[in-house]
Design the sequence.
């Protein structure tokens, strides 16, 4: 019997479940390697070469090079692992989150200062993300 | 109480007086004064690791830190400049044995780093001391890979931890902290979700109806409190370790702390125990 995934219907949201963990294993382990200063430097000096050391799909590598976080999420990336990429780029969680919503950082920050995204209107405003 | 890397950065970079952060830190003034008089010997700190100590190589659902020291983790921007966390090895091993015999299969960890999930709550409560003023037993709960443990499981685990603490020979002043949350979503197009009504209900029921609150299914957290709001199950470990009747010494709520609704509550058993 397949696992029930009622959470798959939540709009604009990819739940990092066991299927995603399997799909994103090498992508996430690459991210984890960036917790070492030496590997961060190697990655930043030649990103493509560094990515080629990992058993990631071409799509996953391209998403990393493009810093397309929604695409990385769709390909099995987990936000706490992806955080190692934007942290080593010198970006904050706020900047990264803004990029995923399609808002500018100023718009996003101003939404947060006025109480955040309402849980009640977003269901109409946010499209389903492929995943 | 909630944690975010940005709170850690605000403390580490001396930005706590800035307009954006000032209200966050004001909410902890009572708590800092309170804990200075309480002087706990040990904090049993329930938190989640953010893919720092545990990558996808190993994903323990419940992990107890049994060693005497834990270094702050490098999460991708260098380790936070905070003191090494001193554990309580003997007490932690004791709790592990007691809780496992009580049917909760913990993973025992002797070598691990601790990330902002553990050190930011310490910074909020103790500021920037040269050394942390007490020992800390790190207790990591998986909320990274779905599914995390249920609220009910966390609540019952809290009760087992309480029994273990009470059975320890040494007379220690022990606090249990539940951290993470409140409503927030860090990923996807729905990032930035905050649900103040959900959070207010959660804080109220945490005191008055923890048994009912523990029954809330995962889906309700994900839908109403955002994908990362599910961290709130960790608060139920703390609540399970307390008496049914508790008093609220302090409660504080603020939006935003970066992407997150920050909640903080101090509960105390009403009856003084022998």
Sequence:
């Amino acid at each position: 019997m397949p696992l029930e995934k009622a959470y798959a219907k939540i709009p604009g949201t990819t739940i990092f479940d066991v299927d995603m963990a399997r799909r994103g294993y090498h992508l996430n382990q690459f991210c984890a390697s960036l917790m070492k200063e030496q590997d961060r430097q190697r990655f930043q000096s030649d990103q493509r070469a560094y990515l080629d050391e990992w058993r990631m799909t071409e799509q996953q590598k391209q998403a990393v090079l493009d810093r397309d976080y929604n695409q990385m999420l769709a390909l099995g990336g987990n936000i706490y692992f992806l955080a190692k990429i934007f942290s080593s780029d010198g970006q904050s969680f706020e900047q990264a989150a803004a990029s995923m919503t399609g808002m500018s950082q100023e718009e996003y920050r101003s939404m947060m200062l006025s109480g955040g995204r309402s849980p009640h209107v977003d269901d109409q405003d946010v499209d389903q993300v492929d995943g | 109480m909630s944690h975010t890397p940005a709170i850690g950065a605000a403390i580490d970079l001396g930005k706590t007086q800035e307009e954006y952060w000032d209200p966050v830190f004001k909410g902890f003034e009572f708590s800092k004064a309170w804990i200075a008089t309480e002087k706990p010997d040990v904090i049993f700190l329930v938190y989640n690791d953010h893919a720092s100590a545990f990558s996808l190589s190993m994903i323990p659902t419940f992990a107890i830190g049994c060693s005497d020291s834990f270094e702050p983790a490098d999460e991708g921007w260098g380790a936070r400049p905070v003191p090494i966390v001193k554990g309580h090895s003997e007490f932690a091993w004791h709790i592990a044995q007691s809780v496992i015999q009580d049917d909760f299969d913990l993973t025992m960890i002797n070598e691990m780093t601790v990330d902002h999930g553990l050190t930011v709550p310490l910074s909020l409560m103790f500021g920037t001391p040269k050394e942390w003023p007490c020992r800390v037993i790190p207790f990591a709960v998986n909320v990274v890979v779905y599914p995390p443990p249920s609220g009910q499981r966390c609540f019952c685990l809290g009760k087992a931890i309480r029994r273990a603490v009470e059975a320890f020979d040494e007379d220690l002043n022990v606090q249990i902290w539940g951290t993470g949350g409140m409503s927030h979503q860090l990923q996807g197009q729905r990032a930035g979700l905050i649900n103040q009504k959900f959070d207010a209900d959660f804080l109220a029921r945490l005191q008055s109806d923890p048994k009912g609150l523990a029954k809330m299914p995962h889906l309700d957290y994900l839908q109403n409190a955002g994908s990362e709001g599910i961290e709130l199950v960790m608060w139920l470990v703390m609540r399970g370790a307390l008496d049914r009747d508790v008093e609220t010494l302090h409660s504080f709520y603020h939006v935003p702390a970066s992407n997150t609704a920050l909640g903080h509550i101090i509960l105390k058993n009403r009856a003084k125990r022998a």
